[in-house]
Amino acid sequence: MFSVASITTSFLDYPSPEDHAICVYFQGCWHNCPGCHSLALQPLKAKNMSLEQLLNEIHLMSEAEHTTKVVLSGGDPLQAESHVGIQSLLQCLNTDGFDVCIYTGFSMEIARYILGRAPFTYAKCGPFKQELQRPSMKTDTQFILASSNQDFYNNDWIKLSDNGILDFTKE
Ligand code: SF4
Predict the structure, then answer these.
(1) Of 9, 34, 163, 168, which one's alpha carbon is 20 to 30 angstroms from that of 59?
(2) pTM of the entire structure?
């Protein structure tokens, strides 16, 4: 079971210039980053969605919105209450042909430990640091994360961005 606050679509969150994505916002985050832009998603709440229900919602939205890209965000989808279920979710999404980007406030080393061999396409790792804040944006050529300590990694844990800026022209 998962605690899901909302599921929506967005063009801004998947790290490729052309793709919009289904965004699943998980409820609960313990990082307590000063300046957090998602305060309402920090408290842990009761789990409200089974793996089957969540997969069904993602499939329905995929058909309606014509995308196979998924972003798992929050909150933090890798918090202890979720991460066992997250591995199962990632396995199912991979089997069903989805490409997944995970947004976590954990460091790359901890995210790697939590995710094990679970399949995903991108992971954004690192907490939000107010002192390193800058406008976050996605353009045709780059993706700028909200603070420069955060970075994108691929499934082999190779860092793809530099100081939190992913250059699409280098991929
Ligand atoms: S990781 Fe994200 S949601 Fe969690 S406290 Fe930090 S900024 Fe807020």
Answers:
(1) 168
(2) 0.96
